[in-house]
Specification:
Elements (H helix, E strand, L loop, with lengths): L47 H4 L12 H27 L22 E2 H17 L4 H15 L10 E4 L5 E5 L4 H17 L2 H18 L8 H6 L10 E2 H17 L3 H18 E2 L4 E2 L2 E2 L16 H18 L2 H18 L10 E4 L4 E3 L2 E2 H18 L2 H17 L13 E2 L16 H18 L2
Antiparallel strand pairs: 1-2, 2-3, 4-7, 5-6, 8-9, 10-11
């Protein structure tokens, strides 16, 4: 299938979920609106609410022809490009799990298996089975990965090691971050939902609550800032980092769609409160990636650090949780902040978004490009367009859609899949090191589902 740029055509009218959103002068402060959140998760509004001009709320929806074009491309990218490559080169049918360390052509560079990729792959194939294609082979892929990881489940409040041999022998010490365990929890929860296995869902919940306890330790991950900014950055024991919050939030959101649970809801409330009230820096209306353990703002230079890729990803997850809660004010606020972060991160010269604003006042950026950051923009902008009909969301989706299809698919270079990281210009390099098995298929699946919902409402 030859890719064509998607060029939007105006179409009027939309079934509006946020029926008053096009009239900012009539909006009330977030804190004045009825809210489903608990007392610890009331979200404060900020000056951005008053700065949006009226034309930011113009309506322009996708036409059926546009949606069919998008749907056709997503079907191709998921079912004819991504999944066949995974089947041929990545999935370990014999021993279970995913061997993602491959060259562009699928040549295996290592048979080791990474905890992050196991949990993520488990989630992808479980979600695919439940929502897009109930082929038992997809559930079987998730099942074998789940069994692989459960054989190595750490005891007590221990964390998984990062790497395993193909056969499942742990390599190295336990991780000092909760990400790997949280991806395993998300994968197990989604598989449990697909397989209707309440026991595994409870196991996933136990892992989530364990990760919260670890994240709450005052000595948690002292190297957090250094992992982003290098060894010259200060140590930050116990720092609150947006990354754990949004992984916890997204996992709890998915689990709460399946089962009501007071403990997981309390975790989700905490995440929303921390993200929207404490990481948000009103001085420049962006999220600080790292703040102090007590949620106060740093004074050691980290108050200038904004990891825009994570902020954009976090905000569509906040919007998704707002939809689950039927919390309109929270959705609106997250949508406006999403737009703000994308506009700030956009590369006006070469297109796409940068992932890291290392110093706001000095305007110091990390100038590489990563695919996942671009795809978070596509998820969020289509979500806003579906729910509101706001013209800026459609325009943003089209701009990013055209950019990624021009720069990132590897078909023009004779390979399957899309590139996963490059320089500012997204320059192709013939050699690769891994196949990305999470952000890319998640984007394809979520947006294919959104497109089909939008078509069904026409």
């Amino acid at each position: 299938m030859n890719r064509r740029d998607f060029i939007g055509v105006s179409s009027a009218g939309a079934a509006m979920w946020l029926e008053s959103a096009c009239r900012p002068s009539a909006e009330k402060k977030q804190t004045e609106q009825p809210n489903t959140l608990g007392a610890t998760a009331q979200i404060a509004d900020g000056p951005l609410h008053a700065l949006l001009p009226t034309d930011e709320f113009k309506l322009e929806t996708f036409s059926p022809a546009e949606l069919r074009q998008i749907e056709k491309q997503y079907v191709y990218d998921l079912f004819q490009d991504f999944l066949p490559f995974m089947e041929k080169h990545i999935i370990d049918r014999e021993l279970g799990g995913f061997m993602c360390t491959v060259d562009r052509d699928g040549t295996n560079l290592s048979t080791d298996k990474y905890t992050w990729y196991e949990g993520r792959g488990m989630w992808v194939y479980s979600f695919l089975y439940q929502n897009l294609d109930p082929d038992p082979k997809y559930l079987e892929v998730a099942r074998k990965s789940a069994e692989f990881m459960l054989r190595n489940k750490p005891s007590g409040d221990g964390l998984y090691v990062s790497w395993f041999t193909r056969e499942g022998k742990p390599k190295g010490a336990a991780d000092n971050r909760i990400y790997g365990d949280m991806f395993v929890a998300a994968g197990l929860a989604e598989y449990a939902r697909a397989a209707k296995d309440d026991g595994l869902w409870k196991t996933a919940k136990e892992i989530v609550l364990k990760c919260v306890r670890i994240y709450d330790r005052p000595d948690y991950w002292p190297e957090a800032a250094q992992s982003y900014l290098g060894k010259e950055a200060p140590l930050t024991p116990g720092a609150r980092v947006i990354g754990p919050w949004f992984v916890l939030l997204n996992t709890c959101s998915g689990m709460l769609e399946y089962k009501n649970d007071a403990e997981l809801l309390a975790v989700a409330d905490r995440c929303l409160d921390a993200i929207m009230n404490y990481h948000f820096n009103p001085e420049f209306e962006l999220f600080n990636e790292i703040i102090n353990h007590d949620l106060s703002r740093p004074t050691n230079g980290l108050e200038q650090f904004v990891y825009t890729g994570h902020a954009i990803e976090t905000l569509w997850m906040v919007m998704a949780e707002a939809l689950r809660r039927k919390d309109r004010p929270l959705f609106e606020l997250a949508a406006r902040r999403f737009k703000r972060h994308v506009e700030v991160a956009w590369d006006g010269v070469y297109g796409g978004v940068f992932r890291s604003l290392n110093d706001v006042d000095k305007n110091v950026w990390l100038l590489d490009k990563v695919l996942w950051a671009q795809e978070e923009v596509l998820i969020g902008s289509l979500m806003v367009s579906e729910q509101t009909g706001w013209k800026w969301a459609k325009d943003l989706f089209i701009k990013m859609y055209n950019y990624v299809h021009d720069k990132w698919p590897l078909a023009k270079h004779g390979f399957a899949l899309w590139d996963y990281g490059a320089d500012r210009k997204a320059t192709f390099i013939p050699k690769g090191a891994r196949a990305e098995n999470y952000h890319h298929p998640r984007h394809l699946m979520l947006n294919l589902l959104a497109t089909r919902r939008m078509l069904s409402n026409r």
